[in-house]
């Protein structure tokens, strides 16, 4: 199941989507309601919020079977009323890098496509898959896809926005180390992307990170030790780090300074509860 923080006219909501079930949680009233169902089940979809809209994209599109089958791309607007069923989720055109058109030979042995990297750049969702198919962008205004680069995105996973067209992500060239990129879709058909020089004592990406606005972002990870055959953790700790972006001293160097502001460690409140090993972080959200 995937989660995302989405804005609405009634305030922020946490939306969870897994298989074909949509869950909408109100953090102010601590209440949860069931949202509309998807036409096709998705096990671990990519969720990309934009205003009151939430875009859901299959992470591993399939051409056979029930799960992850077409359609692969949907949008749900929390400001629009919906009736039970799947009427709340609207089908969108699939990315051109997905296996949309296969010949009979390819259909017998379909390629295994998986979303490798993505970001919300202005009014565009930019996306690359594991194969070298280039980068495509979805315009949320025109609801159309375009190829914007012959190369894949130079980072892994989700790029977190810092503001001023800057994003922090795990760099491919640096073996997954954190890096800052400047990204902009020019003319709706060309992606401009540059890795900036970062002055920092080290950024720990953790399992998840999220934007906090005003050039600040956080990373979360779970520190744990293999407990052995019992499969329980009594001393698991959730580590939360907060970073802030500061402009470089010389603007001509096109550099940024990243400063760690805070480091907090949390542990379980209920000593009778244990955490399974290994323990991945499911979501990190900012409301």
Quick structural overview:
This protein has 287 residues and is an all-beta fold. Helices cover 2% and strands 47% of the residues.
Distance between the termini: 19 Å
Order of helices and strands: EEEEEEEEHEEEEEEEEEEEE
Number of strands: 20
Which structural class should the secondary elements be placed in?
Answer: mainly beta
Unreliable runs: none
The largest pleated sheet is described as: 12 strands, mixed
| Mean pLDDT, all residues | 84
Measured by DSSP, the beta-strand proportion falls in: over 45%
Work out the helicity level.
under 10%
Number of helices: 1
> Order of strands across the widest beta sheet?
12-11-10-9-13-14-15-16-20-19-18-17
Q: Please tell me how large the radius of gyration is.
A: 20 Å
InterPro entries: DUF1668_ORYSA (IPR012871), Kelch-typ_b-propeller (IPR015915)
Organism: Sorghum bicolor (Sorghum)
Protein name: F-box associated domain-containing protein
What does this structure look like?
- InterPro entries: DUF1668_ORYSA (IPR012871), Kelch-typ_b-propeller (IPR015915).
- Pfam families: DUF1668.
- This is F-box associated domain-containing protein.
- There is one protein chain.
- 2% of the residues lie in helices and 47% in strands.
- With 287 residues, it is mainly β.
- It has three domains: 113 residues; 83 residues; 89 residues, no CATH class.
- Strand 10 and strand 11 form a beta hairpin.
């Amino acid at each position: 199941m995937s989660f995302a923080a989405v804005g609405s006219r009634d305030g922020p909501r946490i939306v969870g989507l897994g298989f074909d079930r949509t869950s909408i949680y109100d953090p102010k009233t601590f209440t949860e309601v069931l949202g509309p169902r998807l036409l096709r089940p998705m096990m671990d979809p990519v969720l990309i919020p934009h205003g009151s809209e939430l875009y859901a994209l299959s992470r591993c599109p399939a051409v056979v079977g029930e799960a992850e089958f077409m359609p692969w791309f949907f949008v749900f607007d929390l400001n629009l009323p919906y009736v039970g069923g799947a009427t709340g989720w609207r089908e969108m055109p699939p990315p051109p890098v997905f296996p949309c058109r296969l010949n009979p030979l390819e259909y017998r042995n379909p390629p295994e496509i998986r979303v490798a990297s993505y970001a919300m750049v202005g009014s565009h969702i930019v996306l690359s898959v594991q194969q070298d198919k280039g980068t495509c962008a979805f315009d949320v205004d025109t609801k159309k896809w375009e190829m914007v680069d012959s190369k894949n995105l130079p980072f892994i996973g989700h790029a977190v926005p810092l503001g001023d067209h800057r994003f922090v992500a795990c760099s491919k060239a640096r073996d997954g180390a954190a890096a800052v990129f400047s990204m902009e879709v020019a003319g709706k058909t060309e992606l401009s992307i540059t890795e900036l020089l970062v002055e920092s004592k080290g950024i720990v990406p953790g399992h998840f990170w999220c934007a906090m606005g005003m050039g600040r972002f956080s990373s979360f990870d779970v520190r744990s030790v293999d407990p052995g055959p019992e499969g329980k953790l009594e001393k698991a700790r959730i580590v939360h780090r907060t970073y802030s972006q500061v402009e470089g001293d010389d603007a001509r160097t096109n550099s940024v300074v990243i400063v760690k502001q805070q480091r907090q460690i949390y542990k379980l409140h209920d000593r009778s509860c244990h955490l399974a090993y290994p323990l991945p972080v499911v979501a990190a959200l900012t409301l």
